[in-house]
Design a protein that fits this description.
CATH class: Alpha Beta
Distance between the termini: 7 Å
Strand content: 5-15%
Shape: globular
Structural class: alpha/beta
Mean pLDDT: 94
Helix content: 40-55%
Radius of gyration: 21 Å
CATH topology: Amidase signature (AS) enzymes
Number of domains: 1
Low-confidence stretches: 1-5, 494-499
Number of helices: 17
């Protein structure tokens, strides 16, 4: 990118560049935040990525950051860097709406652990990012906050549920975003919007948040999450570059035993012996008769060639059945854990989430029947453990998997509401997104190419706690791929300066 100060406005800088410049007193945090707020005012009305921004509060935080720099205080790795926080995640003083009108008054008294970690690293929350109602779609619209559009093409989804987070980065509103992922909700929006999304190993980043309650005629009742949330959901970062995402991930990695899957310290993996040979990358191109769009196949082939060029040993080992079974288990376990939520959705959800969930349950029924019994559900958890062991034995600490992000380019906006046939096509197409949460492994989606004006990416999966190995491979792909910036695309309403 060259010298960012000479070639781009501050909102275009990467998080890594901004953190270094604030630390080195080249720019102030107030200047950074002011630039991003101006960008929000200019372009956010069109895409609706951020649904709540408080400029005065954000500028005050930036001023405090500059005071800390002037005083010579120890600075965190993200000091002065703006970040967006998802509306389904607790941020003190803000409503945790989850895109539901009935929760508009659900103010958080304290930060979720991942938000507190970002603040401790010096990041400055700049706005709340949009989601679908209940964060349960691969699209990002709801009756409370409206619909988020993809900055590359308003007719295509920005992804979901972290669609606002990804669209905000792609449109230059913030360089970083916090998201969460139980079925592709970080990785898919990142790919749809041409940015980087990291799903960490379960337990690396704390998923703890303040207790949630539902108001009932008998008073507040605690809302306890089902098993799949504890076993499969993660908090993680989205960034403009792999280096940005790595920086944010390390900042968010904090020991927290309040998290049911939390570990007191990330396990140290053994160093690879000298002369051990290149890291191996197994290409998994498809899944059980799901036909990939030709552009998707081309993106995976391009990523494989770039890894080969970087010195990775690229091969093809038959792990498709394992990933296919994991995707089927996602349809069992997530769906059955969501079933009790249907009463709440019917009562306070919007029409879109009711229609989308009906399609979700119909897709699950084609695989598992209308109402799987308890034995099937329990056996599903047991089978999940077997698949985790098998994949970990295959990957070890020196093999990665390269897969598509989805069998299709970014879906047309609200494809899940377009009828039963179209809705049913989405679930098999999304097998690369749904297989990974069941297994709990780390994965990164990284941009690879443009196809008809839309970004296409690839997914890299690693063994447990091998995030740095996965990010190294993602960086090798990124460094050999064209730089994709939505604001520089022909016809984009924003400034088309340097990329």
């Amino acid at each position: 990118m060259g010298s960012p100060g000479q070639r781009a406005e501050l909102w275009q800088w990467s998080a890594t560049e901004l953190a270094a410049a604030v630390r080195g007193r080249e720019v102030s945090a107030v200047e950074v935040v002011t630039s991003c707020l101006a960008r929000v005012e200019e372009t956010n009305p069109a895409t609706n990525a951020l649904v709540e921004v408080r400029p005065g509060e954000t500028l005050a935080a930036a001023h405090r950051a500059d005071v800390a720099v002037a005083a010579g205080e120890d600075l965190g790795p993200l000091h002065g860097v703006p970040v967006s926080i998802k509306v389904n995640t607790e941020q003190q003083g803000y409503a945790t709406t989850n895109g539901v009108a009935a929760l508009a008054g659900n103010l958080a008294d304290e930060d979720a652990a991942c938000v507190a970690a970002l603040r401790a690293a010096g990041a400055i929350p700049l706005g709340r990012s949009n989601v679908p109602a209940f964060s349960l779609r691969w699209f990002s619209g709801n009756d409370l906050h409206g619909r988020t559009l993809n900055p590359w093409d308003h007719s295509r989804t920005p992804g979901g549920s972290s669609g606002g987070a990804a669209a905000g980065i792609a449109d230059g509103l913030t360089p970083l975003a916090q998201g969460n992922d139980i079925g592709g909700s970080i990785r898919f929006p990142a790919a749809c919007c041409g940015v980087v999304g990291v799903r960490p190993t379960v337990g690396r980043v704390s998923g703890w948040g303040p207790p949630a309650f539902a108001d009932t005629p008998d008073g507040p009742v605690p809302l306890d999450f089902p098993p799949t949330v504890h076993a499969c959901a993660v908090q993680g970062p989205l960034g403009r570059t792999v280096a940005d995402a790595r920086l944010a991930l390390h900042a968010m990695t904090t020991p927290d035993l309040r998290d049911t899957a939390g570990v007191p310290g990330v396990p140290a993996l053994p160093e690879r012996a000298p002369g051990a040979g290149p890291v191996r990358v197994t290409v998994v191109r498809g899944n059980e008769g799901v036909k990939n769009h030709p552009a998707v196949d081309a993106a995976v082939a391009d990523a494989a060639a770039r890894l080969d060029d970087a010195g990775y040993e690229v091969d093809e080992v038959d792990v498709e059945p394992l990933l296919a079974e994991a995707a089927r288990l996602w349809l069992l376990l997530i769906t059955e854990d969501t079933r009790p939520l249907l009463r709440v959705v019917e009562r306070i959800g919007d029409d879109a989430i009711r229609t989308a969930l009906a399609g979700h349950f119909a897709a699950a029924a084609t695989v598992w029947g209308e109402r799987p019994d308890i034995e099937t559900y329990i056996n599903g958890w047991g089978r999940r453990a077997t698949l985790i062991t098998r994949l970990q034995q295959l990957l070890g600490t020196d093999r990665l998997l390269l897969t598509p992000v989805c069998a299709e380019p970014p879906f047309e906006q609200d494809a899940d509401l377009a009828g039963a046939r179209r809705s049913a096509e989405l679930f098999p197409a999304m097998w690369p997104m749904t297989a990974v949460p069941v297994l709990g492994f780390p994965a990164v989606t990284v941009p690879v190419a443009l196809h008809e004006g839309l970004p296409l990416g690839a997914q890299i999966i690693g063994g447990r706690f091998t995030e740095d190995l996965v990010l190294d491979a993602a960086q090798a792909v990124e460094g050999r791929s064209p730089v994709l910036r939505a604001w520089a695309a022909p016809g984009h309403p924003g400034l088309s300066g340097s990329v």
